[in-house]
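Write out structure tokens for ABC transporter I family member 10, chloroplastic.
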Amino acid sequence: MSEYLLRPVQTLGGGQKQRVAIAGALAEACKVGVIKAVQNLLDISEVTALWVTHRLEELEYADGAVYMEDGRVILQCDAASISKFIKAKQSSYIDRINS
């Protein structure tokens, strides 16, 4: 839909106008915000926020989390359990390197 963003409405066909109207309605009613950084949560209230991170310390801001490897969901649960899982995985990896 982004190709229609800067086009004047008069230049759109009937079907295109419908699609743009539907996209606008869906975006307005959206209850999920995709954010780049956890700091952006300061501007969001009453909305589910979705962000990708590699920083374990950011999990403290999450109600739930998903751990993925190679594009596959490995674990989905509360943030504290994800944090424990990752720390155990890191510890196991470090033990293998040191032995």
